[in-house]
Every structure is written in C-alpha cells, then in structure tokens.
Write a structure and sequence with these properties.
Layout: E1 2-11, E2 14-24, E3 29-33, H1 40-47, E4 55-60, H2 71-74, E5 75-78, H3 90-100, H4 106-115, H5 130-142, E6 148-152, H6 160-175, E7 179-183, H7 187-193, E8 196-201, E9 204-210, H8 211-217, E10 221-226, H9 230-239, E11 244-246, E12 252-255, H10 259-268, E13 275-280, H11 283-291
Parallel strand pairs: 3-7, 3-8, 5-6, 6-7
Antiparallel strand pairs: 1-2, 1-4, 8-9, 10-12, 10-13, 11-12
Helix pairs in contact: 3-4, 4-5, 8-11
C-alpha cells in the first residue's frame, strides 16, 4: 500500500505538487492520470525517495522509502527505461542490480524469461529498440519480486503483442494481491487495464475513484435511437414524458431513460426501430472533460497560410 498525505513539492515559486492525499491499495490496478506538467513524475519520484517533499508525507506500507530494509524486494519501479548502462548486456545489467540488492542470480534468468528477452540476454542494451529497452526496465522492476510495483508509461515503444502482454502482467500482479500503480497517456489502454483512477491537474487532486464512476461522473450517458417512423416515435416519447434531443443526422438522443423502456414503448405502438443503443463516453472523453481547465500546454489549430512566414520574404529561422 502507498499512502500520500498532504504531499507538496515546490521549485521556487512553482508548485509542482499541491497537497496530494490519496491511497494506492493492493489487489487492484490503480491508474495515475494527468495532463503534461500535472506533476505525475514528480509525485512518483517522491514516492521512491528520489525527490524530497517540501511538505507532507508518503509512506510505503507504513514506512518512508529510506526506512525499508530491502527496498528492491518491497517496491519495484520503472520510471525511465533508458536509465541503464548501454555498454552492459541485458543479463549483466540485471545481474548488477541483483548482486547489489541481495537477490540470487537465478532470479535474473527468471525475469528475462518473463519479459521475453532471454534470446537477447547477452546483447548490449545500447543496441536495443525502445520496446526492448522498455521490457528490460520492466524486468528490473520485477527483479526483487516486490509486493508493490510502479510503472511510468510502461507501454511506451511496445508493439501490440507487447502492449497486450504488459496489460495482462499488471492484472496478474494485482490478482496476486500486489499493489500496482501505473501512469500512462494512452487512454484506450488505461481503460482496459485500470480498476481505479487517481487524476491530478496542475499538481492538485481532481479525482480518486473507480474507473466506472469516473466515466459516469465526467461524461454524458444517453440512448441513441433511429427509426423510419421518427415522427410517430417522437409523439410517443413526448407523451410518456421523455425529453428527446433531435440531432442533425436524423437520430434521436434520450437522457435518463433505460433503452429497455424505450424498446417496450416502441413495441407497444408497433414502431420499427433501426437502432436502440446506449452510449457512454470513453475514458479519454471523460478525462478531457475533467482536466480541461488544468491543461498547461495548449496546442492550437494550424496558423492560416496567409499568416505563416514564407521563405524568401525576409523570414529568418532561429
């Protein structure tokens, strides 16, 4: 279990993390979301004792990180897959970690097999692709067989098979009763992996809730209907006191009503339906809705061609 209480980090006048309080519990995958610059990486670094909080506290199973007797066996982390000596082979990289943390050599072989790098164990890490480096970083996190695991962008650089593998790995670790905390910008993957979400913006806590509740609370759910007897259907729905939104493409949208009830009404009046489907926003849409006011870096539409600097018109590049 990871417990944060009033965790704050300042860099001069800049508040990177602002009074964060939440708990990462065992047995589930907890997703950690936030726009760029929200303070996610700083928060994770403070959890591992890499940055010192300006105020507040963070504890790993009731202890500060520097109080853990065997930290590698307590908590495994992947924060930067490139944080390795490129001149060492994958095997030697893990062996150095194992020897410095009292972990038997046989464990190196086990984690290399787990992440699928046994065939390239003797190759130097500097020749690895981004995805292979990511697998090696995950192997390092697993090396101490820890009860708590933290991953920052674990699917970065992985191919579809690798993404499917890490998703199942995290779910399996959580099913074993371990604490799994994962940060990612890939919303579609997070929606398939995480059971619980912690969302921050500009260093402040915005949400600490289940995946289902987060989507329900930050998005619109409705029923979409299409029928060749649209006008008759409108009359029936209005007579039943149901508010209907008419869209420009001929479909109808109904809020706050179950599709089963609408289907029963249509059947009662012998109205043919071509579509009757419940609609709910994706995690990405719900996330964008919640964090709209917390985005630090805004991209804009392309500048009109007439306003763009042109070569040969006195424009000088920097």
């Amino acid at each position: 279990m990871i417990e944060l209480e009033g965790l704050t980090k300042r860099y001069g006048e800049k508040v990177a993390v602002n009074n964060l309080t939440f708990t990462v519990r065992p047995g589930i995958v907890t997703g950690f979301l936030g726009p760029n610059g929200a303070g996610k990486s700083t928060t994770m670094r403070m959890m591992l004792g890499l940055d010192r909080p300006t105020a507040g506290d963070v504890r790993i199973d009731g202890k500060h990180y520097d109080q853990l007797k065997d930290p590698f066996k307590y908590i495994g982390a992947l924060l930067d897959a490139k944080a390795m000596h490129g001149g060492r082979s994958a095997f030697n990289h893990l062996l150095c970690l194992a020897q410095s943390n009292g972990i038997p050599k046989k464990r190196v072989h086990q984690v290399l097999d787990t992440v699928g790098l046994t065939a390239v164990a003797k190759k130097k890490a500097k020749g690895f692709s981004l995805g292979m480096g990511q697998r090696l970083g995950i192997a390092g996190a697993l090396l101490g067989d820890p009860r708590i695991l933290m991953f920052d962008e674990p699917v970065n650089g992985l191919d579809p098979e690798g993404i499917h593998w890490i998703r199942n790995l995290m779910k399996s670790l959580a099913a074993q009763g371990r604490t799994v905390f994962v940060s990612s910008h890939l919303m579609s993957e997070m929606a398939l992996t995480a059971d619980h979400l912690v969302v921050i913006g500009q260093g402040r806590l915005l949400a600490d809730t289940s995946m289902a509740d987060f989507i329900a609370q930050n998005s619109r759910s409705y029923v979409r209907i299409r029928s060749p007897h649209r006008e008759r259907l409108l009359d029936v729905l209005h007579s039943a006191g149901i508010t209907v939104v008419q869209t420009g493409n001929g479909t109808l949208e109904v809020d706050g009503c179950k599709p089963e009830y609408i289907g029963e009404l249509a059947a009662q009046y012998q109205i043919v339906l071509h579509e009757l489907s419940p609609q709910q926003a994706s995690l990405e849409e719900a996330f964008m809705q919640l964090t709209a006011e917390s985005v630090e870096y805004h991209a804009h539409a392309d500048t009109p061609a007439a306003q763009q600097p042109q070569w040969g018109d006195g424009w000088k590049g920097n």
